[in-house]
Amino acid sequence: MQEQTQKSGFMNVAACVFAYAVGVCVRASILGAGERMPGINGAYSPVQVRSLLEKGALGLPDYPLMFAIHAGLAATVHKVTGLALESSIVLAVKLCMALLPPLTVIPVFILTRRWCDRAGSTPSRLPFVAATMASVGAPFVLMTGNFDKNALALVWLAALLLALHTYMERRSVANLAMTTVFLVLLGLTHIGTFTTGLLLWICVITIYIMQPAGPPLRATIPAVAVSILAVALAECLVFWKFDPARIGRFLNALTNPLGFLTTHSAATPPMQFTPLGVLLLAIHLGGLGGFAALVFRTVRKNRARLSSADIALICGSVITIVFITGPWIMNDASPRLIFIAVLPSIVVGMFAAIHHAPSRTRRILVAIGGVVLIVPGLSQGVFGGWRIMSDEAYAELKTSSAQISNPERTLVVAMHGMEWDAAWLLGTRVALPSALRASDWQKYDEVFYLTIKERLDPLGRFASARKRESDSARKNEDKFLVLGPFAKLPYVEIPAEAEVVHDGKYLQLARVKTPPQSLTAKS
Prior knowledge:
This protein has about 525 residues and is an alpha+beta fold. About 65% of the residues lie in helices and about 5% in strands. The strands form 3 sheets. A 5-stranded mixed sheet has the order 3-2-4-10-9, with helices on one face. A 3-stranded antiparallel sheet has the order 1-8-7. A two-stranded antiparallel sheet has the order 5-6. A hairpin with a 3-residue loop joins strand 7 and strand 8 (about 485-490). Helix 8 (about 150-170) packs parallel to helix 16.
């Protein structure tokens, strides 16, 4: 018996390590394709880390934890290897992006393994499948270079799910402290995932207390109060020291929740969904109700043999998933919240598969889920991540730095994605056209508009600048950069009165001495 237990323990560790290693390899494949960072926000972290190392502060207000981790590793690499600072920063950021997000496999594997053992299906491969989904699922791999803070925060969210379940099964100060620690880490990493984690924590604890077998209120309320106080102090530190502007948005969310849920930020580009993107969103909303109904039915059917911790964690997670992905959230956070919801959905889905479906149906459902999540995620590693511009355009952007005489006093206006490459290569301040104000011309010595002549086809391949300029049939479409089959971003249009200082094969850089008429009219 002891030998069998040891063998089972070894297989569990091996399965977990393998799922983690696959996730690292897939991300390393995407990150290792050249010196550049992949994704639409790829250069954002290097820009923030460089500012943190050179000036001791973030270049833009933001949640600090991820950048502090990157900066610590970059400083170590720079000191130990003697690499140039910027090369050390890029290497450190890539290492963190490859090694940290796949750690979600550990809590997901442990939770699923725990439920399999209690359901009497010890040989089940479900824990490994669940861990692989969390490691190389398409949404998680797609975050590489696009939503990097989200990716790190999902590690804390997965750990919070496990810590909550552990605390509810074995109430102790240490286990409660662990749930608080992961909430604090979420509060230092990313606002959307922190909000999701806090909502999940509240829902789960509330359901747990309300059950007949739940703990007495006089023992629970002080513990909950201490946890809330610790989390509140961490958030106050972030608001005060790193992102004070977020206080206003936070208060606005509390006083006007409907307006907050439906208002788009001026700093967010007006991304438009293609018909296929709208169709997928409709399918998602339709499946959401069916998913919730299936899980609640599973809990009700198995209520007699489920622990209070199981019921609270699953029901609280479903309520959170429905709330953050429902059609009532119509602001620019909606796509990110859907991505965040995939992680608890995997945990909840595996719980339903273990406790509800017959073995044959279970295999079919898990196989479908695996194909939908894992195959696209692996394919991203095989074909590499996409970038906002070609290598040739990136090299041309480097050379255009000769036109910038005083980067610290210069503002470059570029489309979303390009602005971070411009900040990294040119060392300037950057802005999106949608966030530009007429007063910016008083804040900076010079203002430049940067636009790209390339376009991406639906498969993510770059069309030549010549083709884009000559194809009159695509004149209207050329106003947008197509991000695969799902969405598109508008190109930057250079004002007519601008002075073009660089007109290359791939890029155009123009100096704009006075605010365009569209901005002055708006003011």
